[in-house]
Amino acid sequence: MTGDALTFFCNEQRLISLHDSIFRSGNLAFVTETGVVRFTDLVVRGR
Question: Which of 16, 20, 33, 46 has its CA 20 to 30 A from that of 1?
Answer without folding.
Answer: 33
